[in-house]
UniProtKB/TrEMBL annotation:
Catalyzes the sodium-dependent uptake of extracellular L-proline. This is Sodium/proline symporter. Keywords: Amino-acid transport, Cell inner membrane, Cell membrane, Ion transport, Membrane, Sodium, Sodium transport, Symport, Transmembrane, Transmembrane helix, Transport. One of its GO terms (molecular function) is proline:sodium symporter activity. It is a multi-pass membrane protein. The lineage of its organism: Bacteria, Pseudomonadati, Pseudomonadota, Gammaproteobacteria, Alteromonadales. GO terms for cellular component: plasma membrane. Its main location: membrane. It is found in: Cell inner membrane; Cell membrane. PANTHER family: SODIUM/PROLINE SYMPORTER-RELATED (PTHR48086), SODIUM_PROLINE SYMPORTER (PTHR48086:SF3). The keyword Transmembrane helix applies. The chain crosses the membrane at residues 6-24, 75-92, 126-147, 159-180, 187-208, 234-255, 276-295, 307-333, 369-386, 392-412, 424-442, 454-472. It comes from the Bacteria. It catalyses: L-proline(in) + Na(+)(in) = L-proline(out) + Na(+)(out).
Amino acid sequence: MDNMSYVTLALYFIAMLGIGLFAYKNSTSDMSGYLLGGRKVSPQVTALSAGASDMSGWMLMGLPGAMFVMGYETIFIAIGLTLGALINYIVVAPKLRVFTEVANDALTIPEFFANRFCKPKGSIRVISAVIIVLFFTLYTSAGLVAGGKLFESAFGLSYHLGLIVTLAVVVSYTLLGGFLAVSMTDFVQGCIMFLALILVPVVAYMQFDGINDLNNFAQQSIPSFSASMSDVSFWALLSSLAWGLGYFGQPHIIVRFMAIRSVKDINVARTIGMSWMLVTIVGALATGLVGVAYANKFGLVVEDPETIFIIFSNLLFHPLISGFLMAAILAAIMSTISSQLLVSASSLTEDIYRLKAGKQASEKESVRIGRFGVAGVAIMAMLLALDSSNSILSLVSNAWAGFGAAFGPLVLISLYHKNLTHKAAVAGIITGAVTVLFWIYAPILSDGRALSSVVYEIVPGFILSSAVIWIVSRISTAPNENTITLFNKTNQILTEQK
């Protein structure tokens, strides 16, 4: 890369650290400020922060790589994600914003679950926190793998050096500014990603003589659109669309709904967020499609399909623009890592440490412990990411399924079913998480493969978790009056605010 590209990247790093310093001076006096920005986040920041933390390095690397290898079948993943995100804004966001505040101002998802059942020290809180730390460590490692591949492919530097640099910058601003820093940097990073995912596929497409020329070269490696649509099996279609189920249980996404300043702002956030998502996800798919056609037309050797965005950035653009596009990849990576680290730290602090320490833990001490939590999870994720052969999309899909199955059914049922019981909630979480892990790792098929090779693990995980919650709620003791009062109060406030 040219020196101008490095200058662009250096300015980007400085800007992110500057935002972290600004947030440090404005929001970290207590845990509400550190973890939720005091519930005063604007709809614009909420929308782009939710989008950027959702669409991580897999958006610019994993999804184009999947299109490069799988072809048009990848479109179904995009459809599932888009529908899931839209339903999340409509069904989950408004109620979660009100309910978490009514439930004794819950700052984390595990705390919300506990307060929802009027059991602030209930087992559900610790179990949820452990699952969050477990799957977010895996999820964060996917982002670090993307960072390592970026530095190796674009800069010719060591993969492991890329891990360290990526981690150092994102941990620094997350440690400093907490939720406000994460949300503000996500907003900037979301804007960068938006522009990059328009610019790269459009410029790459200009190397062809039209859509027919592009299709002809693309079909040398992947089936045509009509062939792809007709050859997709039922299980492949179900697995791809089922990605949308994951949205309801992603702590780093739904926590944005808890932090928005009012229910009335959610409609604005939804419009901005969904518009942003449609453009970026189409841009990511287009990058992969144009990439496979470009490779065939010009004899380009692509050793790792997940680096096609990086290859285009270096081949087709002026060094100054190339630096901006590299910053876009870093933006995608860092926006998600920072969100995941913060949610993991909040669970370690609020749902494990502070719960055990009780009143002995001051606000200042809790914030300090939260920062230690950020560093601890980051180190564990880096150890998992040391193997550069890991697939970004594969790591993301596993963690996405884990959260979607463990928390998704419970979030939905918690918000809409007042007779849900604490025992049912605990059973549902454990069932979802265990099913996903079994589906991924148990080599029970005749050829030694796991069941995830047949159908995406979120499908059985989500179904079994939902079924267990329903059955156990039916056979266990009904919730107490205080729990039902919280539920009814939430509905009343929501009606008034709308």
